[in-house]
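SEQUENCE-TO-STRUCTURE ENTRY
===========================
What this section holds: a protein sequence and its matching fold, both as plain text.
Question of interest: how does this chain fold, as expressed in backbone structure tokens?
***
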Amino acid sequence: MTALAGCGTTEIPETAGGDPAEGAALSESCAADRTATATGPVSVTDGLGRTVELDAPAERVAVLEWQQTEDLLSLCIAPVAVADVEGFTTWVTAETLPEGTPDVGTRQEPNLDALFATDPDLVIVEASGPEDEIVAQLAERGVPVLATLGADASDPIGHMKDLFSLIAEATGRTERAEAVLGEFEAHLATARQEVTAADLPTTDFVYFDGWVESGNVSLRPFGEGALFTAIGEELGLTSAWTGEVDPVYGLGQTDIEGLIAVGEANLFYTGTDDPAGDYVAELEKNQIWTSLPAVEDGRAHAFPPGIWTFGGPRSCEQAIDAYVDSLPAP
């Protein structure tokens, strides 16, 4: 539940950090944004069921997870601090952090002294549960904390949208959120028509990412409950991964040989260069991979780099485009 009172004109920031009135140049979409920002008291229920109350919508927001950072930027708010700026800029391209955004350490172990030096009036975190250590540490400092949950395998798209709306409510940007989510739904509807019109040899598909460890390739197929699986299904594709997946994110684990089980399915995978090792280069050397039907038929497609598989509406729009761009030419 959210209580908001009063609205004001959106102020688009111009530079990162410091006083939000000085602000930061954000996206072209934000430059053209004319949605209203609420000005009255805020009361929201966060992902842990906690009531978070603010005298006014948060303006100086620090964020310790990438999806929530993306969401804040899509709402046309420049964060005063972010965890792992380099990682964000590598894995997330749907939104761009303003230059000079303060980095407060890793997502798992943030530097709380650096965080509080930015004087936030709200800190957004991704919590593992009611006993989350970072939530407790932040609460001790007396700054409001919005604890969010990263995923919900029972409704991954609905959860993505609800999380975006929750952050919008806490920052008074509900009107902007409604506009962005409307654009997402329209994007999805248009793409669904394109997929329906395409002459696909099969609608079966698997999206996966992977990594290299001790010279071995491990793959992480996205099964039922995963966000990018749900997007593919909304487009009219059929998930082909039937292996075990975790109950929150819908993610499995296998090796290259495990992909034999998906048969004729189309294959999609992340194209982001992982500093820890190029698993795609290792795939391409492997005879099992090169003999898979999708690879032999040219139906194995890397998504463009920087599409965050656990992102908000803008990352999901990028994923929609990547699926459609892989369709065979008419």
The domain at 198-325 is CATH 3.40.50.1980 (Rossmann fold).
